[in-house]
Amino acid sequence: MNKAVHGGKGVEIKSHEKKQIFDYSTSLNPMPPKLTWDVSIDAIRDYPDDQYTHLKETIAHHHGRKPEEICVGNGSAEVIRTLCHTMLNAGSVVEVSPHTFSEYALSSKLAGAEVTEKRSARVDLSFVCNPDNPSGVLTPRDEILERLNDIKGRGGILCVDEAFIDLADPHESVSDIQDCGLFVLCSLTKSFSMAGVRFGYGIGDPDLIAAMEVMRPPWTINAFAEAMALQAFDLFKDLELSRAYIAEERARICKEAIRLGLNPSQASANYVLLDIGSDSKEFTTAMFNQGILVRDCRSFGFPTCIRVAIRDHETNNRLLEALSICLR
């Protein structure tokens, strides 16, 4: 097996390039609430509370849940690995869409499970990303709950990855639903533009959470990540401004993309999938030559598509200019 393919190569690429590169391959909030590095020297010198009691209480309060329903991890990717290694083994069956985040399938296979793209008579775990990655399309809450009932009827647990939902429409979240067949993945990375901090968490049945906490390595959340996460939960109301800004810029980019002959997805998130109608590798290279880094979606099974993040107005103008040049 190989490592999953991800975006987020901007830092590595910029270190080798002399020209200025604008990174549209990572989907972060272009207008995030401001957080500070307010950590005491004692918090740095001491081991963290490995139970993360205060942090879990804060998360639980935000979602209307209980602390024993919360697990934490060094980014949602670690929570996915922990979930799979807790639940799955040889003989387990996992349903994963062929066009989605590649960590779901990889983590399942590493735990020994069989991964299928088709509906199985029996299923142990099923992954859905909402909003979808890479299209940004948001599935209504009612449809997610219908899928939950379907998965439970076949003996499995539904894992809903809501990493991008706070920048789309949090009213469609199912994180408040208490159901033994539901596990919800959450992240502050995208909403608060703090990818380097690495903080994610999960919400689910207390028995599953307890087992995951045994599987999780100790002290996975460092003092800086914990401090910034606690700040973030006091600032969720400020994401309303972010959502409005993103929606306006997304509409502008999609309108211009259509004028240029592209087919944008009906995205609700802070990114959009663009079908360019030709080889995405060649087009990605052409965009890079214009100083624009976009997400080549071949790894998602879309060989003629790219994914672009929504950034600030001025920077988005650079994206549109580069698209216009590369489509000539």
Kindly describe this structure.
The chain is an alpha/beta fold and 328 residues long. The protein has 2 domains: 10-31 and 238-326, Aspartate Aminotransferase, domain 1 (Alpha-Beta Complex); 41-234, Type I PLP-dependent aspartate aminotransferase-like (Major domain) (Aspartate Aminotransferase, domain 2). 37% of the residues lie in helices and 15% in strands. It contains 11 helices and 13 strands. The strands form 3 sheets. A 7-stranded mixed beta sheet has the order 2-8-7-6-5-3-4, sandwiched between helices. A 4-stranded antiparallel beta sheet has the order 9-10-13-12. Strands 1-11 form a two-stranded parallel ribbon. Strand 12 (295-296) and strand 13 (305-309) form a beta hairpin. Helix 4 (76-87) runs parallel beside helix 5 (103-110), helix 4 (76-87) crosses helix 7 and helix 9 (239-259) runs parallel beside helix 11 (313-326). The longest helix has 21 residues, at 239-259. The mean pLDDT is 94.
Provide tags for this entry.
37% helix; alpha/beta; Aspartate Aminotransferase, domain 2; 328 residues; single chain; 4-stranded antiparallel beta sheet; Aspartate Aminotransferase, domain 1
* Beta-strand percentage range: 5-15%
Number of helices: 11
* Secondary-structure element series: HEHHEHEHEEHEEEHHHEEHEEEH
Multimeric organization: single chain
Structural class: alpha/beta
- DSSP, total strands: 13
**CATH architecture field of the largest domain:** 3-Layer(aba) Sandwich
CATH class of the largest domain: Alpha Beta
How many domain modules?
A: 2
CATH topology of the largest domain: Aspartate Aminotransferase, domain 2
Main sheet: strand order: 2-8-7-6-5-3-4
Ends distance: 39 Å
Unreliable segments (pLDDT under 50, ≥5 consecutive)? none
* CATH superfamily descriptor of the largest domain: Type I PLP-dependent aspartate aminotransferase-like (Major domain)
The largest β sheet comes out as: 7 strands, mixed
Helix content class: 25-40%
Name the average pLDDT. Answer: 94
What would you call the shape?
globular
- For the CA atoms, what is the radius of gyration? 20 Å
